[in-house]
Structures are given as C-alpha cells and as structure tokens.
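Entry 12.
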Amino acid sequence: MVGGSQQLFSRIQEWARELGFSQIGVAGVDLSSAEAGLVSWLEQGFHGSMHYMQAHGLRRARPAELVPGTVSVLTARMDYLPRATPEGWQGIEFARLQRPTEGIVSVYARGRDYHKVLRGRLQKLAERIAQEVGPIGHRAFTDSAPVLEAELAARSGQGWRGKHTLVLHREGGSMFFLGEIYLDLALPPSAPVSAHCGQCRACIDVCPTQAIVAPHRLDARRCISYLTIEHAGPIPLELRPLIGNRIYGCDDCQLACPWNKYARPSTLADFDARPDLFGQPLAALMDWSEQDFLRRTEGGPIRRIGHARWLRNVAVALGNALRSGAGGQAERAALQRHAQHPDALVREHVAWALEFS
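Predicted 3D structure (tokens):
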C-alpha cells in the first residue's frame, strides 16, 4: 500500500506541473506543536483587526476539525513573478521606491487575482486525483479559510519559515503563492527541509515600519501590507510617513532577501503585470473614478479593498511625496480635487496629505 501511495503521489506531481504548480507536498494533520505559537501571537494582538483569525481559534491548527475526515493535506506552491521579469528585478523594484511620485503596487497584485487562479487549478487537481482513485472527500484552499498555510507548507517540504515568517525555498525564494487540498485520502508525508537563513537579518532590518519584531514574529498592525490591504480604518498617523509610495502591499522584506535572487518567473500569463498597476504617477491614480477603479482592477486582488481604501492609500503616498519635496503642483491638485470626497476616510487622509503642500 505504501508503494502504491508513493506511486500515486508521483503521478499527482506530474498532474500538478501540468497545471502550473511549481511543487507539491503532503503534510499530516497533527499541527499541535504549532498551537502555542498561534495562541501567543493572537494574545499579543499582532493580528490587528483581522478578527477572523481569533474567531476560528485553534481550528486553524486542526485540519481534521476544519474539514472532518481529513487525513492528509496536499500542499502546493505556484511562482508568481511575471513572465517578463528581468535579471536584477530586486534592484529595479527597490529603485521604484526612490521615486516618491510613482505609486507602488506589490508585485503579486499586478496581475490576476491569485485566489481565482490557484483555487481553480487546485480543484482540477483534486478532480484528476478522483478520476484515478475514485470518489474522494476534498476541499481546496488558498488564503481563503482558517488554514495555517505556511506551517503546512514548511512541514511538507515546500521550504522553511524565513525570519519574515514567509516560506523560503532554495530554488524559488519566496515569490510564490501557497494552496492546499484537504483530503480524506492517506498519502505519504513529504520530508521537511532544513532552514538556511543563518545569521542574516536583511528582512528584519529593511522593514520600513519594523513590523518584524523578532525573528519569525510579525506584528501585523505595523505591516504595510496589512495597513494598505486588510485594515479598513484610518492608517495610524505615526506610520503614514513610513509607508512612502507603497499603495497596495509591500515587498521590502522579500526584495532584501538573498534567496530571492533564485525566484523564478511564473509559467502563466495570469500573473503578468497590468500596465495600469506599475510605473503610474500617484496623481493619475488618485484621479481614478470608482468606475475606473473597478474596470482596471477587474479580476485582480486589488478590487477587494474598494475605491475608498484605494484613495486613502494613494492620498497617504501623495502626502509623503509632498513631504519629501518631490511632489509639486500636480500632486497637490490631485489631492485638492478630493478634499470634499463623500467618504470621511478619504477626506481625512487627503486633509493630512495637504498639510505638507
């Protein structure tokens, strides 16, 4: 039976590659050793306003409770760097941060919504397995449920947990998405890999807001990705100047990571960057109407934050541009056109930004 399971897993690997996945692995369902760390993280409030993380409690660390009948978790990773990514892309991205009037969207969010891409392909993989072995109980996830994705990925050999808490792979860096299929099918667990961060602190030292409070410990309340995406209310005043020109997400800890020189471009067109989402002036982005926003973010991950939060983020970046002295009349005018915006969240951040004009 063991030999048969291993043979099946080898075939699953082939099917996964055909679907665009970089690697798959198998984790068991006993994550009890991760529960203490999860509880501590929640007790310190590091999850911020992501209340769903606390609401689900320890179900996140108990796959068989989340999906009864689960005996194996098939994990998958998919590279997301755009196909046209050039050599030295990390330096190119760092250089964008030195252009205060340009809006910076995190690399992963410049193309199609990864939730849609991965979920559909994970479902196809599960269907292919069922064709082979008969009906199976399964459920596919990709950043969409109370799942300890990084923990499952690390346990199944997808890489090790970096000091920034992301999963790192020696041949793929960290520029990949993770997904899982919870299965009632027993598969042989994959061997984990050893960590290779050593004494490196690049990710910790580069973080603009010092959100990585200790190795492997992230205070989401200070993280720019959290502030510009997950956080719905006003961005704390003391953190606004540190956000710079980042308007959706932040890649700094990944840009600084030496392992990402090995990051591989995706094989899929889905993650190719849309022209509207990189290299654009902040003033132009501030003038997107709600219809413009919905049209230009259709099918992408940015749409889910809504137009008001988009304008909030761009207003902060424009304020930082003016504060730095790089912003001028175009930036001031873009803000002034929204000074009487109907949304109080937008008005408040615009008013803050105009204080530097």
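Annotation: Strands lie at 23-27, 72-79, 104-105, 138-141, 160-161, 167-168, 176-183, 212-214, 217-218, 246-248. Residues 114-133 form the longest helix (20 residues).
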